[in-house]
Design a protein that fits this description.
The complex is a heterodimer of chains A (111) and B (123). Chain A has no helices and nine strands. By secondary structure, chain A is mostly beta strands. In chain B, the strands form two sheets. In chain B, strands 2, 4, 5, 6, 9, 10 and 11 form a seven-stranded mixed β-sheet that branches. In chain B, strands 1-3-8-7 form a four-stranded antiparallel β-sheet, with no helix packed on it. The chains are: A mainly beta (111), B mainly beta (123).
Chain lengths: 111, 123
């Protein structure tokens, strides 16, 4: 049972816009920044969004992040086949002396 | 650009200690600016943060693993290491090392990752 809650799956067709939600609490998302990671099959995770809505260099602007209260969202517009991957949200949790917590991951399928 | 590479045994017996090393290239651990982290992923499952260390030796650990985890740093070799004691089959996972910035835990994120190494706990 992950501290952050994500839908296990999402899907869309090429060109569509898809959003993935991440729900937490006041001790994590409610008080700290949210980061998103993309994990392509058989590879290590890659930083996709940091500090709620910032894109690292090289990440297409089709990817965007937002946060409101104790929830966050990742949006992917102009969906492409290469976006098929697992997506994880993460944040610092202030409880129990602090720790990084992840969502359970969302498997995105491009139909 | 920082690169990280995990190394260590791929098979560990139950009750023994899992030991992994992460070698950092493209940057010096002792230059500061990063937390050096371990994260694992059980087969077919999500990510679990294990802990991280600063070059000075200060550490943060996942409370659920804290009693069994030790993360250390060797600045002379530009490496940091993970030891997980009293392992069981539940510790079978891919173990990743990663760098985390900035040096404010509440705001940090993992910007560079190693490729990961599978450790199986079995007799």
């Amino acid at each position: 049972q992950s501290v952050l809650t994500q839908p296990p799956s999402a899907s869309g067709t090429p060109g569509q816009r898809v959003t993935i939600s991440c729900s937490g609490s006041s001790s994590n998302i409610g008080s700290n920044t949210v980061n998103w990671y993309q994990q392509l099959p058989g590879t290590a995770p890659k930083l996709l969004i940091y500090s709620n809505n910032q894109r690292p260099s090289g990440v297409p602007d089709r990817f965007s992040g937002s946060k409101s209260g104790t929830s966050a969202s990742l949006a992917i517009s102009g969906l492409q086949s290469e976006d098929e991957a697992d997506y994880y949200c993460a944040a610092w949790d202030d409880s129990l002396n602090g720790s990084v917590v992840f969502g359970g991951g969302t498997k995105l399928t491009v139909l | 650009q920082v690169q990280l590479q995990e190394s260590g045994p791929g098979l560990v017996k139950p009750s023994q200690t899992l030991s992994l090393t992460c070698t950092v290239s493209g940057g010096s651990i002792s230059s500061g600016g990063y937390y050096w982290s371990w994260i694992r992923q059980h087969p077919g499952k999500g990510l679990e943060w294990i802990g991280y260390i600063y070059y000075s030796g200060s550490t943060y650990y996942n409370p659920s693993l804290k009693s069994r985890v030790t993360i250390s740093v060797d600045t002379s070799k530009n490496q940091f290491s993970l030891k997980l004691s009293s392992v069981t089959a539940a510790d079978t996972a891919v173990y990743y090392c990663a760098s985390a910035v900035p040096l404010v835990p509440a705001a940090n994120y993992f910007d560079y990752w190693g490729q990961g190494t599978l450790v199986t706990v079995s007799s």
